[in-house]
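Give me the fold.
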Amino acid sequence: MKNICIILLFLPFFSCNDWLTVESEKSVTYINYFKSEQDLENIMISIFGNEKKIFAPFYTNHLDISGLLCDEGGDYEGFRTLNPEEFFGGNMDNWAIHYSAIYLANMMEENRFRFEHISEERADYWIAQANFAKALFYFDVVRQWGEAPLAPGTESTDAFGKSSITILLEEVIRCANIALKLPTYEKLTDANGSVVTSRQYASLGTVHTLLANIYAYMGGISGDRKYWEEAEKHASLVIDGKVGYYDLEPDILALKNNTLGAGRKSVETIFSIEINDRDEGRFWSAMFECRYPGLLLLDYPYTTTNPENIESNYRKPTVYVSTIEDLYERGDQRLKEYWYKLGEVGYWQPTDWDDDGIVIDSTWKISDYAFLDKWNKEIRSVNPAVIEGGDAPLLAMDGNRVVWRLADLILLRAECRARLGMETAVNDLNRIRNRAGLNDYSGSTDPEALRKEIFHERERELFGEGVRYYDIVRNGYFREQLSWAYAALTDEEVKDGALYLPVPRNAFDKNPLMKQNIYWSWRQK
């Protein structure tokens, strides 16, 4: 596949002309581009690059930090306590990459009339791929920032203010519905006619999963039953195998190895971001890739060989053994597979010294902390210049970045069914429990009690995978499940945007129509 270099003179809200330049042997503009199907796939590959930056970043985004289940936030505590200095700091979350991808999707669609040597069927295919990506990026913008701009046409030079959440979600659904033209995963092909094996290419099952998440979100913020009905319908199409074949891995160890780990091939994966050595260029890197929020909790035995070090590392998020034991039931296989020797890791703690300061007595102490082991295939530097005679730095945990997997969707359907008063909600819950080695749920089936249990099951199953904050907001549990700062929020502050990120600073450049959301406008300096 030939390489292309896409240069986007992108400014937020398209306050000036955006231009695409393709560099091959000759410099051409998009006016004489679109001459082959490969040109369309190259644009999608550029969009895939933006997906990686948003859904598999090196750094955990701020809302994922707020939602991470831990006892001590370390350097990230300010995000958990709504500290404005953190949210407006140098690493302020930004939506520019989202709108860059949306621009590319719009550009492809607007230039369909230029397509040459491409059948209508294949043109529809690539337009559907682009619309899935556009729906995905807009949906992520809504979940993180709430009100935001609706991108104009690619030739527009006008400044634009924010659109309402309702208008944005209408656009999300419109784009997702266009993407419903995609085939099932088994029938995906690339520009050369070869079978697609990457789960980053959208398929019919991926689109219905997106729609299930969109409608569940709309149900959560509006309380309208019709959205839960729609979410349940779309989830069922995927779970029941009507839009492609998906299944749970047989046990938690297989889930770790095949779905989340280095195996990378799993019937449980619905949508994932491709991560591999060839694309990452890790040889000169010494930085750890924190692709999942849960990797903030990674410690012994991967980042240190001495579990005692965590006792004095106040900069790092940590979680106690007692917290994890309270979360999971005895006999749950996830206690064994997600956590490294939970409640067994210890070290020799000095208790007496001689006059020269030499330790003469010590006692074995079991660490109070839980050590994450959900991702456990290490990638370390092999570059002598980086290692420099010391330990090879940990660069990543091997595996793709899974965005959606079947267990996630089954539990989302369980939540929908609980809200709809459907008895089958328990069946979905039990399917995930049974895979983890547990008996059927025997607690209350009152809709609200069952919904709370399903929320906790999502915490257990999807620990650290980046869904907890959005689960909390969708269920309205932020006052009880997040920090004291969220518990203290008034209804008016929530209405004013406290649960969203502040509008990024560069969104105001050359754009007099942009406004900060009310909650953060009173707190920015």
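The first strand starts at residue 21 and ends at 23.
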